[in-house]
Amino acid sequence: MKRKKFSWLFVFAIIGVLIFTTACNSSSSSGGDGDDEIVIGVLLSQTGALEAYGLQTERGFEIGLDYATDGTREVAGKKIKVIYEDTETLPEVAVQKATKLLDEDEVDFLVGSSSSGDTLAVLPLVEEYETIMVVEPAVADSITGSEFNKYIFRTARNSSQDAVAGASAIAGPGVKIATLAPDYSFGWDGVKAFKDAAEELGAEIVHEEYADPQATDFTSNIQKIIDSDPEYLFVIWSGQNSPWQQIADMKLQERGIKISTGAPDIAALSIMEPLIGMEGFSVYYYELPDNEINDYLIEEHKERYDGDVPDLFTAGGMSAAIAIVEALKQSDGDTDADTLIEIMEGMSFETPKGTMTFREEDHQALQTLYAIRLEKKEGVPYPVPVLIRELSPEETAPPIMNQ
């Protein structure tokens, strides 16, 4: 009986091996198509307070893929597939959408997102799934600082780069400055970085005011700033709800308080008429960079989108796409994360803003920013950021904060 039992077990074992082998061969065969495709998942705000930024990123990413692949959407013989997911500008939704992209769609890269809060919520997932995430346009310092992991690379500038650019425009010995920012990670990190940079130049931060990012009435916030009696108000803001109109209505400049900020997107520039003459900085305005890639972006964007020009974060979306394609060219299409990390650390690549370089220590892209003045330009229905001077990648390099 024992010998007979052994014989049946042997038969079952052989059948099992054959089934397993067939399944593996079938899986390998069906996976061959997948091996010929690179899948990129893009998280962005298609709804919510940062919807405009999501649209800018998406348009730039689309143009960037075509530019970097000469219109083929192919690299190293592999087709590129892009899946866009709306985070709704809500961290919990961002986590759900990122999990879907990583688990179900098995993306080779993540890109995004429009919100620093959304992005910070997703960072642990890319480490868990060992997948490269190119962060664009979220700026919170903590993304490449305290919350950094090795799978994160950022083409967006961070808050400290903004801070260096902003402080260079107004800070000096004895200058009194108040700040206004939204009450979440983007605002907190931005103010901390600006304060550090301004105080290093000898300025005094006399008041920090944080406002509800969903608010439509900033009267009480602005009054507190007035009461602190600063020489300058430095504003850090993003999104549809902005304080510009009430800053103008409450006549801060007539009270001797000069306004400074990063020049926002075109929609927000349209309500900054009272700030003509203001000096600050810009992440990107389409007339500021002078290079062939930016020329391509402007021309292609106008052709695709009814004559519209690229906006604040369009160049960033394009830069993220170029970075991914450049890394894949160097890896010959290999999407292994460790292989890509080795390539991308220290990698330089050309963008609409000139040369960017992923700093080896924290994977933050060093990049050009722009000192600007808002001026009235004939035929343009909003104040235009006019170049004072370029701020080089070396000049705006932020401190390394992930160690």
Automatic annotation (TrEMBL):
Please indicate if the UniProt record lists Signal as a keyword: yes
Q: Which domain of life is it from?
A: Bacteria
Q: Where is the signal peptide?
A: 1-23
* PANTHER family tied to this protein: LEUCINE-SPECIFIC-BINDING PROTEIN, PERIPLASMIC BINDING PROTEIN OF ABC TRANSPORTER FOR NATURAL AMINO ACIDS
What family does this belong to?
Belongs to the leucine-binding protein family.
Q: Which Pfam families match?
A: Peripla_BP_6
Protein name according to UniProt: ABC transporter substrate-binding protein
> Which keywords appear in this protein's UniProt record, sorted alphabetically?
Signal
